[in-house]
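job 3f2a | input accepted
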Amino acid sequence: MRRKAYLPINPGILFVLITTVSLWLTACTQLDVFEKNVVIPKNQWSNSLKPDFDFIIKDTTASYNLYIVLRHTDAYHYNNIWLNLGTQSPSDTMRYQKFDLLLGTDAKGWEGTGMDDVYEHRSTLAARQPLKAGNYTFTIEQIMREDPLQEVLNVGLRLEKEK
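job 3f2a | predicted structure (163 res):
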């Protein structure tokens, strides 16, 4: 004789409850305005690959934090990475700025967070910046001497509203 499974709560009510709690948690923790990560083909970042990131700012009353997100393997050959960041704000031309991001030291090892042999770095480029309303475009180019740059998995841009 088969026994029927017994649920103390009606499945329809359970679905509504789980959906409501999930939406509530997402709404409470969702501070990101924009995040996009680009996978580096074959983990070899060529100088010719210059990922671009586009977003629109509508809320000009908030301040924003801008981060570069970089993932690499433990086999990455250097303690840093040189990047050329192109920025184009509304009704402006593209402007470039070089950044030397420290990824680790010989004494302490890799910075950032790691799991197994993959490390992720979130480096602040700008903090508490008010932005004009409109379209923004960013490009990221690696400008290391090694081309292609080995063992880089992803590069991305993250923009958050200041808490």
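job 3f2a | The chain has one domain: 33-161.
job 3f2a | closed
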